[in-house]
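Hi all, posting the design record for the shared folder.

TITLE: backbone redesign
STEP: 1 of 1
STRUCTURE INPUT:
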């Protein structure tokens, strides 16, 4: 068979997107250019790799087989590239990282510091909720994943690298703000905003109420921590979020923490990889960076937020006077 690596790259993109248009956009090509190459690949294979039903395309049996082989081939090629880099003693190449949504509040700062030392490492970051991260991990799609709870059913290696306190938040004018040691039972009278099903934060929150034999009265379901914060600020309910998502709101006073018995729920952030996966030098270097440099890097970031919040809240010494003079 005379198929080329280029054709297989295009095929893999179409198979993952299940769309010629999206695959072409992803690879910065035109859709006809992709279609021609796939057609040639199908001629080499001697049978169709995709079938169209209505407006959607699907992989045929042969397409699925081709996709499985592509995945193996590309991961062997990636490993070869890594090994060649390692032999040259340079830390460069790709790092495939996927993180749960909540980790986006700190991971870009860590990546930025890491890349200052290792500019030739190219990081592909996927952000999704816990359930999807688990799927990606099981399918061996990433070098490392970052999550708030170690998966129980997979054979993984997990290193805690940062504390992850989950706190109860309320709008600043809420009646419980300022009260000390609020019993959790008192919160079962309150409406809670929750993240989408599949979120690790939601899971931890539900588990906490369940373990205490209390009912969690759920109000609206919102698909991101940002939406939850806006919802709580608007008085739609209380919520539980990782304190890492709240640096700006706590610094500026737009949200308040409640002093609830049993809170903060003390969890950790873990960097996780499949035990059987041979870790590349790049992945190993990033892992060591997370374990040794996270605290110091984030401390600086959160101090900046804090200082910015203080400045915003400080009464201005010379209030700006706006003239009522008419402009003509
Ligand atoms: P989430 O995960 O972003 O899916 O809520 C956070 C966590 O597991 O702590």
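Okay, here is what came back for every position:
SEQUENCE:
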């Amino acid at each position: 068979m005379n198929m080329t690596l280029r054709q297989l790259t295009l095929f893999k993109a179409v198979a993952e997107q299940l769309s010629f248009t999206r695959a072409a956009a992803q690879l910065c090509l035109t859709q006809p250019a992709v279609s021609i190459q796939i057609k040639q690949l199908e001629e080499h294979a001697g049978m169709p790799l995709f079938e169209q039903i209505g407006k959607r395309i699907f992989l045929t049996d042969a397409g699925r087989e081709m996709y499985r082989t592509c995945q193996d081939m590309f991961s062997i090629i990636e490993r070869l590239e890594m090994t060649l880099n390692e032999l040259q003693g340079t830390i460069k190449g790709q790092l495939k990282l996927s993180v749960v949504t909540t980790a986006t509040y700190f991971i870009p700062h860590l990546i930025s510091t890491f890349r200052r030392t290792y500019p030739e490492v190219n990081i592909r970051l996927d952000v999704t909720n816990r359930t999807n991260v688990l799927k990606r991990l099981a399918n061996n799609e990433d070098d490392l994943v970052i999550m708030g709870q170690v998966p129980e059913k997979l054979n993984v290696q997990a290193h805690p690298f940062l504390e992850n306190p989950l706190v109860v938040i309320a709008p600043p004018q809420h009646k419980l703000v300022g009260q000390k040691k609020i019993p959790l039972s008192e919160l079962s009278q309150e409406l809670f905003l929750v993240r989408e099903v599949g979120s690790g934060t939601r899971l931890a929150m539900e588990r906490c109420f369940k373990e205490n034999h209390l009912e969690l009265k759920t109000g609206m379901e919102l698909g991101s921590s940002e939406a939850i914060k806006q919802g709580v600020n608007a008085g739609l309910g209380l919520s539980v979020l990782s304190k890492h998502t709240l640096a700006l709101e706590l610094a500026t006073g737009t949200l308040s923490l409640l002093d609830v018995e049993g809170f903060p729920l003390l969890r950790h952030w873990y960097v996780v990889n499949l035990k059987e996966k041979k870790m590349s030098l790049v992945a190993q270097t990033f892992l060591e960076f997370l374990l040794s440099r996270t605290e110091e890097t984030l401390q600086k970031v959160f101090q900046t937020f804090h200082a910015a919040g203080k400045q915003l809240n400080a009464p201005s010494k010379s209030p700006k006077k706006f003239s009522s003079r008419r402009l003509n």
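COMMENT: The radius of gyration is 25 Å.
Let me know if anyone wants the other runs.
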